[in-house]
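Mods, move this if it's the wrong board.
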Amino acid sequence: MGSGLHTCIYCDTMFDMARPPRLEFPGAFYHIIVRGNQKQDIFMEDQDRIEYLKRLEHYKKDHCFFLYAYVLMTNHVHLLIETLSIPISKIMQLINLTYTQYFNKKYCKVGHLFQGRYKSFLCDRDEYLLDLVRYIHLNPVRAKLVKEPQEYRWSSHNSYLTGAKDLTDTDMVLSFFSERVSQARRRYRDFIHGAIGEGKNEEFYRAIGQQVLGSDKFLEQVENKIGKVDRPLRKPSLQQILRAVKEVTGVEEGDILSRGRGKEIIFARGVLIGVWKEFGYRLVNLQPVLRRDLSVISRMLKISDNREGQGQRAIGQVREILNARMQA
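Not the wrong board. Structure tokens:
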């Protein structure tokens, strides 16, 4: 984790504020990403992966969750988990803690093995299950570790192909392809292979509030299940953000979107961009609004933070205004 403004989808919130609580309820479906601290390797040899899988299997039996897919890379892990009664925070705490203890003891290390707070994207299972399974199983291919996913030993892909009984719950995914298991496996294989050569899918990381991946209807369902949350799950509109930026900076909305180059206008424009990113929007979507290249928009974001922390404070104030209005 660095300092300053939030600039990376993989990092936790960089603002001077409390982290949003995990969104947890029975039946929640998560794409989990656990990364090594400062991108360090978390698996030095095959035995380390075996030990991680042992812990995953142990807590799966102990805490009863569904595991639809996994892949163990060199410095990170992807998991696709649906919880039952035990919240994801407790499950991941136990897995990561006990593996860290094993790793540090074996390699005579101390301190954190994993990068801060693991990412847990709460997803609409009906919408994203198949695509996430494919995305996770093709991770070693995209990393050029293997040419085909079945060549990689440390993922759940081969469980789908062979029916080997391990810790992966394959029945639901295969049922989407056919009621006949043999035919389902063939169609699953074709489904996976059909995406070989595709790049990283950024959609899986553009979660609302860095937490939720799904439609407005899915957000409503989540809100109904968890009740009141500290921060609204829905995104504010551009007009709502502009209005709040005007209130905090005193710069008119038209001036913010203009070609004006006054110091205060540039600052307000940077605040707008910072808030836009904070709510999970892509900077590229501001290009037609601000009529600037993406590189220029990125520079504007940095400019707003070069005024002794004023940018961070202004972004925080705008965010508070928007959150209050969206929860009203």
